[in-house]
Design brief:
The protein has helices at 27-44, 66-74, 148-169, 192-201; strands spanning 2-10, 48-55, 78-87, 93-101, 105-112, 122-131, 134-142, 178-182, 207-209, 226-230, 235-241, 252-258. By secondary structure, the protein is an alpha+beta fold. Helix 1 links the parallel strand 1 (2-10) and strand 2 (48-55).
Length: 260
């Protein structure tokens, strides 16, 4: 039996809590905020971190890989990034979802709900190698912020993906996929979060965490938009919305036990 700590956090391009675009933030401020996020990850002793709105190489954010920067400063050596927006040229714009891990990432796939243009969302699927031949699958997702119709379509794409990967890759999994990220809708509404939970519970006794606490906006939270879905093999010990002011979202931390 081993205990693990999973953190999911929409880092909002490292711009902080203020309602300004990241292009209006100085390079010094962006770097300072990334260092504070890395310090938070260290303080929380996270083993796995799923981030949304993380920049790989964007002109508006200093043109460097923010995920690599976090890895170098938080002590989690293994990374995978899934770009949902890609633009080259003189003004590059490349960002999406990322995973930081204490364990090797043996497989990674990215799916985009669109054409990888400005504002498109998607998910990153990874397999963490906890031991030889024993993989823990994780899906880090970011759903549409404004359209319920789009979120439901995106949830349908994700459900199809999970079904296909379970059939083709599930032999070496120690559990069905964990799922986390910015769902952009509360769990109590007839929306994508409830749809995905229902799908997961068809085959497994999943837990939706945190049970209480709001994540958005960070300064004065009014909505629960960020969640972790854990299969029954990952037995939750503790979950919380972490109080911090490093993004417009607050992160969610979940601690769980797993037989490895």
């Amino acid at each position: 039996m081993a205990r693990h700590r999973l953190l999911t956090f929409n880092v909002a391009h490292a711009r902080g809590t203020l309602p300004v675009h990241q292009s209006l933030r100085s390079a010094v401020k962006i770097r300072s905020n990334l260092l504070k996020i890395a310090a938070l990850i260290r303080r929380l002793k996270a083993d796995i971190v799923a981030v949304q709105e993380i920049d790989e190489n964007s002109r508006w954010n200093g043109s460097y890989n923010h995920l690599t920067f976090l890895s170098e400063h938080c002590g989690l050596p293994f990374t995978a990034i899934g770009l949902t927006n890609e633009r080259g040229g003189r003004y590059p714009l490349n960002y999406g979802n990322g995973v930081l891990s204490r364990w090797p990432i043996k497989h990674a796939e990215t799916a985009t709900f669109g054409r990888r243009q400005l504002g498109d969302k998607g998910f990153l699927f990874v397999e963490l190698e906890l031991a030889a031949g024993r993989h823990l699958p994780l899906i880090n997702l970011h759903l549409h912020h404004a359209s319920r119709k789009q979120r439901l379509l995106q949830a349908g794409m994700l459900m199809k993906f999970i079904t296909e990967r379970t059939a083709s890759r599930g032999t070496h999994w120690v559990a069905p996929p964990m799922m986390c990220g910015d769902f952009n809708n509360p769990a109590h509404q007839p929306d994508a979060t409830a749809m995905l939970l229902g799908f997961c519970e068809e085959t497994n006794n999943y837990a939706l965490l945190p049970k209480t606490g709001r994540t958005f906006p960070a300064a004065l939270p009014a909505l629960s938009l960020d969640f972790v879905l854990l299969p029954e093999e990952c037995r939750p010990i503790h979950s919380e919305v972490v109080r911090c002011y490093l993004s417009d979202h607050r992160p969610v931390l979940v601690e769980f036990d797993l037989d490895q």
